[in-house]
Amino acid sequence: MVVxxxxxxxxxxxxxxxxxxxxxxxxxxxPGVISMAGGLPNPDAFPVEIIRQCVxxxxxxxxxxxxQYGTTEGLPALRSEIAKRMREKKGIDCEMHDVLVINGAQxxxxxxxxxxxxxxxxxxSTAPTYLGxxxxxHAFGANCxxxxxxxxxxxxxxxxxxxxxxxKTGVYPKFIYVVPTFQNPSGExxxxxxxxxxxxxxxxxxxxxxEDDPYGELLFEGDPVPTIKSxxxxxxxxxxxTFSKILAPGFRLGWTxxxxxxxxxxxxxxxxxxxxxxxxxQYVAYEYMSQGYLDQQILKIREMYGRKRDIMLNAxxxxxxxxxxxxxxxxxxxxxxxxxxxxxxxLMLQKALEKKVAYVVGDAFYPDGSQYNSMRLxxxxxxxxxxxxxxxxxADVIREELEMTPDEERSIGNGV
Length: 416
Known about the structure:
CATH architecture of the largest domain: 3-Layer(aba) Sandwich
Order of helices and strands: HHEHHHEHEHEEHEHEHEEHHHEEHEEEH
CATH class of the largest domain: Alpha Beta
Distance between the termini: 49 Å
Helix content: 40-55%
Radius of gyration: 22 Å
CATH topology of the largest domain: Aspartate Aminotransferase, domain 2
CATH superfamily of the largest domain: Type I PLP-dependent aspartate aminotransferase-like (Major domain)
Number of domains: 2
Shape: globular
């Protein structure tokens, strides 16, 4: 056995950290714990019987091809279906050759890190932002310039100031990373004017934008906001999509749409990493899409998750003590809670687990670990009654925490 493995691990391996969410999920396996921590789709929404029919059709009609290696770019028929849907639903001007099928959107983030980040490079993101992106980029030694959100808007003035400050010191950021629609973790959606302004800044400073869009189809109310990629005329936006939230995460299927030069680099990266995406799963996903099942599935999910959001919001309004702020998302899987500054949600988590309820600590979504008085709640996974009971338990924990703090130390955080 090698005694000193640390001297053998690469610098990238030593920089990697365990996912806060995955570690918390381990703690929620205890009996009776109501977990509002994970971003898990509800298994009751999985179209099991229809998938079984699709699998039977694939094995009957395409078995030899579906069980063989595939092309790195992905199954042409599936890429064509994805491109068609992106044109019709997202307004993205793309064809089959603009689409690369990947092992979930998370692999796309790894490709971006691999191809654009050297140790010490800087990227820009909102604060808060998706934890998985922080992990992927920081594993390659990236620094993050975090720009706050003002309500649902990216702070464009702060973005310009920070870019100007960085460039004066010889720091040239590589890209801006955003989850603009039903954001993870806040659940908020960037307005159209803000998206246009962001694209203008990226053009002005010659930056790429990474648009991560796993939740965009999960709209509960109102009209959809155009994707940033649909506004892109210069190949400046790398778009990431996934089947994990609209079909089932077990397929591990996603896609990226980008300019030809970028896709060529991603294809070479994929050839080195895993050769091709799960071919059998691609055939099943193609059958599912081509038979017209996806639209009816999305309608089912929207109704289910919209109802669960309302249950959580009503329970919060009923049980949370005064002085708490929360977002009201119009889609997606999450909402964001900001507590008075006297409360540290990381320290409070142990008390919550003792009360058999779980959340994700807010500082996990900040590259600098700030905003310790916030938390992310998921409403998609739990049963309806569990949501009500989970919020009630969490409210009791918060109330006990506030009672331990003198009134003069209580002041609400900045929110998101």
